[in-house]
Amino acid sequence: MEPNSSPSHPQGLEDTPETLNGATPKPAVEPSEAPTATEAIPPASADSWEIETENPTFDNRPNQVSGSVVVLSAMALMILGLGIDNIGLGYVGALTTLAVSLRLVWSNWAKAWQTLIPPIWRNLIIACFGILGSLIGLVIFSNANTPNEVSNITINWDAIGALGDLGGALGQILIAVIAVYVAWRQYIISRDLTIQQNRITQQQTIDAYFQGVSDLALGEQGLLEDWPQERVIAEGRTSAIIKSVDAEGKAKILRFLSQARLITPLQRDRHLGRPMLDGNGNYAEDRAHGVRVIDLGAMLAGADLAETDLRRTDLTDTNLVKANLTGCNLVRANLARSILYEADLSNTNLRSVKLFYGSVETASPRSRTLIPNFDTGEYTGAVVENANFTSVDNLSEENRYYCCAWCGSKSRKTIPGGCEGIPNKLGR
C-alpha cells in the first residue's frame, strides 16, 4: 500500500522523509507564534454589553414602550400619593416621572432634531444661539474690573435685558425665515406635482389624438381609406393639438405621423384617389404627385422643438420658418423642400439628414412656381437662407456644400468647417 493512502495519513501534509519513517512532522509555525483563539477573536467584554444596553438606538421600540409605561406608572403613583395625602409617595412618583421623562427626551432628541430641522438650517440655528450667547458674555465681561488684582464682575442687567429683547426679535425673524422656507418648499413640491400632472394629461390627450386619427384614416379591414373630408378633419385635429402641447409633445406627434406614413406623399390611383401598394407590402411613395393624408403646411412655423428627438421624421414640404431646432436629434430626417428660413439649427445632430434630392452640383432650393425635378435635384432642396448652423454635428460634405451654396453670406459664417472655395449661389 502506498504511504499516502493510509487512513492515518493526515491531509494537507507532504510526504517528507520524517512522515514516511513514522516521525511526527514539525508544524509550520512554532506553538509560541501561532495565534490563539482568544487573540484571533477577542471576546466581548461586559462593558461593551452594558453600553449597548444603556444606550438604546432610535429603533429600539421595546425600550421606548417600557419607558412610557414607567412614566405613566410613576404619574399614577404621584396622583395616588396626592389622593391618600402621602408626601413621600408623591415625591417618589414626581421624581421618577421627571427622571424617566428626561431620559426619554434625551435619547430621542437627536432623532427629533434631524427630522424636524433641515440640514441646511441646523448650523444656522446653532450659530444664532452662539451669537446671542457671545454678545451676552461680551456685555458681562465688559464691566469687569480688577482692583488690587481681585477680579470683580458687575452684571449690567439693563444691557442683558436689551440683548434679551434683541434675541427675541432675532427669534421672531428666524421663525419668519423658516416659515418662508417652508412656504417655498411647499411651492416647489406643488409646482413639481402640477408639472407631472400636466405631463400625464398631455400624454392622455396625445393618445386620444392618435386613436382618433387612426379611426379616421383606417377602414374596417385595416387598410388606409382616407376620403377628402376625413383628411381635412385629420389636418384640423393635428393643427389644434400641435399648438397646445410642448416641444416634447410635438416631437411625439411628428414621430407618430412619420412612422405611420401619414405625412408622406403616397401614390394614388386615378379613379378614387386611394393609396396604392408597391408590391412589397408597403404603400408606394410619389414625391412628385403624391397626396398626403395630413399636410403639415405651416403648422410648425415658429414652433419650439428644442432638445427633442426627431430621428427619421419626414418633414418634407414643411414650413419651419424661424423654428427653434436647437439641440435636436435629426439623424436620417428628411428635410427636402422644407423651409428653414431663419431657423435655429445650432447644436443639432445632422447625421445622414436629407436636404435635397439628386446631385449636390445641380440641386437647388424649392420654388413656389417651378416644378421640382427629383432626378437632377432642381428645386428639391430645403430653403436654408439665414439659418443658424453654429456647432452642428456630423454635417456631411455634400450637405455642407449645399448649405454654403444656398444659405447666404450671413449663415456661411456659422457653418462648421467654413465655406472656403464654395460659391455663394444664393447671391446675397
Sequence-ordered SSE layout with sheet pairings:
Layout: H1 17-20, H2 37-40, H3 46-54, H4 61-83, H5 87-116, H6 119-142, H7 157-217, H8 228-242, H9 247-259, H10 397-406, H11 408-412
Helix pairs in contact: 4-5, 6-7, 7-8, 7-9
Structure in words:
With 428 residues, the chain is an all-alpha fold. It has eleven helices and no strands. The N and C termini lie far apart (105 Å). Mean pLDDT is 79; it is low at 1-60.
Please sum up the structure shown:
This protein has helices at 17-20, 37-40, 46-54, 61-83, 87-116, 119-142, 157-217, 228-242, 247-259, 397-406, 408-412. The chain is elongated and about 110 Å long. The termini are far apart.
What is the gyration radius calculated from CA atoms? 43 Å
The percent range for helix content is 40-55%
Largest sheet: none
- Work out the helix count: 11
Mean pLDDT: 79
Strand content: under 5%
General form:
elongated
SSE arrangement, N to C: HHHHHHHHHHH
- The chain-level structural class is mainly alpha
Distance between the termini: 105 Å
The tally of beta strands, per DSSP, is: 0
Parts with pLDDT < 50 across at least 5 consecutive residues = 1-60
